[in-house]
Structure formats: C-alpha cells, structure tokens
Specification:
This protein is mainly α. Helix content is 78%, strand content 0%. The chain starts with a helix and ends with a helix. The chain crosses the membrane at residues 35-58, 78-103, 169-187, 215-236, 248-267, 274-294, 330-358, 364-385. This is MFS transporter. Residues 11-386 form the Major facilitator superfamily (MFS) profile domain.
Length: 386
C-alpha cells in the first residue's frame, strides 16, 4: 500500500497539502471557539448550536451549487481557490468579535468558503485517479487534513500555555491559511469529461442512480445524530478538563484519524465501502453512548476521543469514494454537491436538536439521541444500500 500511496498523481498530493495547511489554520481556531463563546462572550450551548447549524447549512447549499457549476463549465479550480481564500481571510477576523452574532457572521464566511471549494475539490480528486485508487486517494487527503488537525491544536495548546490571549491566537491562523491558498493555485486541474452544452443548470437528482439516492437518505439519518464536534469539546470542558488541554484532546482525535485514514480508506478499495462505513458508524454510536454516560472520569476522555478518531478514519474517505463509485463521470461535481448538501444541511437540525436536548434534558439525552440515529443508519446502510 505504501508503494501505491507514493505513486499517486501530484494533484492528489498537492490537494492533500492544501488540506493540511488549511486544517492547521482551522483547528488552531476551532477548539477555542466554544471556550471564547462561553467564557468571554457568555453564550451557552443553544447559541453554539445556532451558530454551527446555520453556518453549516448555508455551506451545504453552496456545495450543491458549486458542484453543478464545476460540471457545467469544467472550471473546478477557480472555485476551489476562491473557497480557500475566503476561509483564510475570515478566521483571523474572529479576533475582532465582541458579541456572538459577529462570531456567527465570521463562521458563516468560513463555511461559505468551504461550500465553494468542497464539491469541486472532491470532483478534482476523484478525476485524478483510477476507480481502484479512489479510497486510497481520499484516504491520503483525509490523513493530511487530519495532520493539520493535529498541528493546529498543538499550536493552540502551546500558545495558551504561554498565556497568549485567544484573540491573538486567532490572528496566527492567517499564516497557514495563506500557505493553503498559495498551494491551491499550484494544483493542475485534471482533465475529465465536459458536460457543458449551453443548457440551464440542472439540479435534477433523478439523473443519478437510485442506489445513490438511497445512500443520501441513510446519510441524512446519520447526520441528524451527528451534530457539531464543538459539543464534544464542550462536554469535555464540562467534565472538568482544563481549558488548555481542550485543543490537545481534539488533537489526539485528529492524530488517530491521520494515522489510520490512508490505511482504512485504502482498505475499502478491497473489502468494500459499505462494510467500512458500517463499522465506522457503529464505532460512532459506541463513542456517543460512552461520552454521554461518562459523568466524572477525565482519564476516560483521552481513550474515548482516540476511539472517535477511528470512526473518522474509517468513514471520511470511504463515504466520498462511494459517491464516485455510484455517480457517472460527467456528474461527479453534481453528485458531490448532493452528498455535501445532504450531510451539511442536516447539521442545522442536528445542532439545534442536540443543543436543545442538552440544555433542557441534559447531556445524556443528547448523546443518546446521536447514538440512536447512528445505530439505525448503520443498519439501513447494510440492508438498503447495495
């Protein structure tokens, strides 16, 4: 497998490096937002759910639009560059936020950038390799993305331990963000089938295979129980984890995902996408159950969050590779648009429901709801998606 990884095209490696530096910038900021909201701006779980839900929902709508545009005009790279640029600009501006609606606006801009780039980037990645290497290619991209997610929290932990103000840490995110934009400009867009024929934009899901549509329904159910990861960090803080260790805890998750993403996603090329995703979703259900039941043990948090990294490694690459397996080559951008729309738009109700359940019924109820959705989705995936 190592030989196969190093033989992947340069476009795959460059897009992986882009993900590394972009996620370094993102994860330098991401674990600190719940702390900043609750301890500085005095906002609770409900405000966090509103911020993350709205930001992700709008991002998901744009992912569909950008995917369709990429298929129509065959210019995915321009959208990818614009998306990474917008995110790189918005993150440092969090240092200027004094009320939580301004945090919402900046998270909105960050997710807007993600909406512009995600589907075109995934289409570029899928078009860069043969069908038998899709799991490996997406696994490498996710591994490098998670490498950035390790470096970001580590940098945040060092800066917080040095008593650097959170607002100044936000400003440091500008540097890796700029590197990500520079690398994106260097990527050579792979050739793929051109579908543009002068007709209006086509949003019709019916042109995609029925198995793909069933897959989207199952994904929607799973995502209903998969609220923002910020709730996981908020749970860890509520259990008594020191603030400076919160980024390090999330870095542990990302480290495990980084180490296993390429292998597990590559393994899906041989054992099948559905079995790999099914296993990952079962791990997710177990993790949420344990985190909801954990009422006092701080030591248990570290192996639990490492366990969560295995879920990410098993599913992130395989879920995207399965899209390329099902979709016609000329509709890759559109298929990834619908995939990203489904997984993203459900984050609004997921985050709102989770935040409300936590605030009014307690964390055990909220985490139990997430585990239940994951368990049911895993069963439907196994029985319904062929």
């Amino acid at each position: 497998m190592f030989q196969q990884v190093f033989s992947l095209p340069s476009a795959v490696w460059l897009l992986g490096l882009v993900s590394l530096f972009n996620d370094l910038a993102s994860e330098l900021v991401y674990p600190l937002v719940p702390i900043y909201l609750t301890s500085v701006l005095m906002a609770g779980p409900r405000a966090l759910g509103i911020i993350e839900g709205i930001a992700e929902m709008v991002s998901s709508l744009l992912k569909l639009f950008s995917g369709i545009i990429a298929d129509r005009v065959h210019r995915a790279k321009f959208l990818v560059v614009c998306g990474y640029s917008l995110a790189a600009i918005s993150r440092p501006l969090l240092a200027l936020a004094t009320v939580w609606p301004l945090v919402l606006a900046l998270r909105f801009a960050d997710r807007l950038g993600k909406g512009l780039r995600s589907s075109p980037r995934d289409a570029m990645l899928a078009a860069s390799v043969a069908a038998g290497q899709r799991g490996l290619a997406f696994g490498l991209q996710r591994a490098m993305d998670n490498a950035g997610a390790v470096l970001g929290p580590l940098a945040a932990t060092v800066l917080m331990a040095a008593e650097v103000p959170i607002t100044e840490i936000f400003l440091w995110a500008a540097l890796p963000g700029a590197v990500a934009v520079f690398l994106t400009v260097s990527v050579q867009e792979p050739a793929r089938e051109i579908r543009y024929d002068g007709e209006p934009l086509d949003w019709n899901l019916q042109k995609l295979p029925r198995a793909f549509m069933r897959y989207l329904w199952v994904l929607a159910l799973f995502t209903l129980g998969n609220s923002s990861n910020m709730f996981l960090l908020l749970r860890a803080r509520d259990l008594g984890l020191p603030e400076y260790q919160v980024p390090l805890l999330w870095g542990t998750t990302s480290l495990v995902a980084m180490l296993f993403s390429t292998y597990l996603s590559g393994l899906s090329d041989r054992v099948g996408r559905v079995p790999m995703i099914f296993t990952g979703w079962m791990v997710y259900a177990l993790f949420y159950s344990c985190l909801g039941l954990n009422g006092s043990s701080l030591l248990l948090l570290w192996p639990l969050f490492a366990f969560y990294g295995l879920f990410m490694a098993a599913t992130e690459g395989a879920e995207k590779a399965l899209v390329a397996d099902m979709a016609p080559p000329a509709l890759l951008g559109t298929a990834y648009g619908w995939f990203n729309l489904t997984t993203g738009i459900m984050l609004l109700p997921a985050s709102l429901v989770f935040g409300a359940l936590w605030q009014y019924a307690g964390p055990l109820t909220a985490f139990g709801f997430g585990a239940g959705c994951s368990l049911l989705a895993a069963i439907l995936l196994k029985l319904w998606v062929k």
